[in-house]
User: Fold these one by one.
Assistant:
Number 1:
Amino acid sequence: MRIYFVTLLICSYSHLAVSQNIESLSLQLEGTDMVISFDLKPVRSTGELYDITIVSSMDGYKNAISLKQGRDKEVSPGSKLTFVIDGISEFKGFKGDLDFKVIADLAFAPIRLLTENITAKRGRMVDLRWEGGYRNESYNVELFKNETRISSLASGVTTTSTLWVVPEDNPVGSGYILKISSGTDPSKNVLSPAFSIKRKVPLGLKILPILIGGGVGGAAAAGLFGGGEADPGGGGGNTIDDLPGPPDTP
């Protein structure tokens, strides 16, 4: 192997919008080995995982270089990550200039709930949105109350959103929590803040028409059974003053 000039290029890919997250990139020759090291910075969270790929200009950056040492799948962010390449096996007979590209491809981002201030009413829809997970991820959405699982709301969801129609017979109350988990690794999940499920129409508004109806009915009943005042001058019925007097005495 005879290499006259070596340069390193950085490339970051992600299914989230990211900025450059590879720093302090260096290459050293140790005998016939090439030792590449760098700092991998998280974009949003230290829980991110990256797939690392190193390619070279020898084949036009087409094929990943096999690593003699170093983990290249689901790598956590960290400092001085080190990857060793066997120069003899990878570049046997090569002569000339050689460039490398280091690619950090986001494999997993912690699931994060985007829907804020969940308002749930029986019979109404709740629009749930989130982000994160693995590439080509599927998600499960579950409902809990006070740490007790109530039901599965959706499973195998391949998008980062779903509509939940709160059942009409769902018990009202507080302490409800939504759990969105990775279908690939259920231990990777996010919990919503606790929220309440309420009636679609407040109970007071349901009772109010009944009270009004009862009042009207009571007033009508009072009038029918002597509880109300007589209607002055109304009607054609006789009163005491209208009765005829006794006949004259002979």
Number 2:
Amino acid sequence: MNGDGLVTVLDCQGPEGPATDLSLLLARIDELEARVLALETGPMATLTLDSVYNNVLSILVEAGPAVILPIADPNTDPTQPTFTTIGSEQLVFTWSKLPSTFSTPLDFTDPSAFQGIVPVLSFNGTDEGAMSTDHPFWSAGANGSPGSEPSFSMGAWINLSSGTELQYILSKFDNTSGAKQREWDFTAGGNRGELLLRDESNNAWIGRNISGTATPGLWVFLVATYDGSGSNSGISFYLNSAPAGNVVGSFGSYVAMEDTTSAVRLAFRQGSSKQEFYFGGKMGGGPLGPFFVQGTLSPQQVLDLYNAGASAMGLIP
């Protein structure tokens, strides 16, 4: 560079010294132009949140009626107290506090509010979450009869701050003393992911868990499915689209899941006397927000969801 700040031919260094040959200089310019064109026309250039929404929803509804919890969607106002699900039902969730006032405030001008083109929301693990009042959609037809046992699936993109504490992703579970209304809970942390299904009348549950899901600082796609068989063997887990080795469990004599009056909670559960087991870390938002499907996702559908999400987040080419 000369004293006027202009680039000269001598600045175009090749591996063997100054590129004084004009043809070499032109070749380097062509290479740079090709790289710029790839960025402008490659998959990430044409990917938009709307296209990801369409893709994800089209996969989910193949299995059954489905909703996405579009947390942190850039089309919403982080100073508003509610958000509404997208998909087969429009169900309103109310935040425990405004996302703009979270410990890590949701600020769309901050690059850390995105992973790839996907918005993400950070939860502090102590008092940040959302709740929606009871609705039949979340019970998927359950009524306490084995003949009406529902099938369903749920999943989320998560990035835990710590892997040692039990943390809730979604729950339809109210453990209030003297007024228990427990239906299902989907958790991570405690060095495992877990789905438990409850039979409130019989104080029983069936479940399955997968170990090794909690690697703090890494994005993982966790999916749990249930085939409505009334058995813990009907629950399956997937980690980053791969079927995950897991352990079954049960308590009492499970007959069937019931349609309780419990609210649905995002990122925590209702304990016996307080709200507890808050999620600590990041969740994917917008089209990659947590989802619930009234049906059993197939392994291929889980793989398709993973590919769609990982591409949008820039985790795979």
